[in-house]
Amino acid sequence: MDELLYDVKVLNDGGRFDFLSIGYTATHKAIIYNETEIPFLYSLTLAEVQWDGRLSVIINNSNADVKPTMATVSKTIETFTTNNPRAIVGFTGNTDAKIRLYRIAIARDLDKFLDKFLIWGVRSDTGRREPFKPDQPYQFFFIASRFLT
Prior knowledge:
alpha+beta
């Protein structure tokens, strides 16, 4: 992605990346990588950090900075998988609109992503996992380093 990236602060030994989203307002956001019960599988969560430190994935403030936010998420995936080369990162959106946004963001720079990552989608119509293809109805996404060790 050749978009503007936000500066991130790395927390929790590289499992959390905080940044300030600058759009209509300044919004504190966090990208969290949580280890799951399945070895080497991590869930990615994009959340807003509330004034009291709690995280919210429900808030949709339409901050008009989708491209730099998605570019920042992409960069943290690259950083996380570089530091955890056997990691597979899985994610979805909490609304159909966010799932579509993630699909569009991946598809837009697919050629660049495929140089570094293996990308799969789980289809919402069949539940089957397949290599990512633009314009398919995916419910979940999985990304791993192309150089998986």
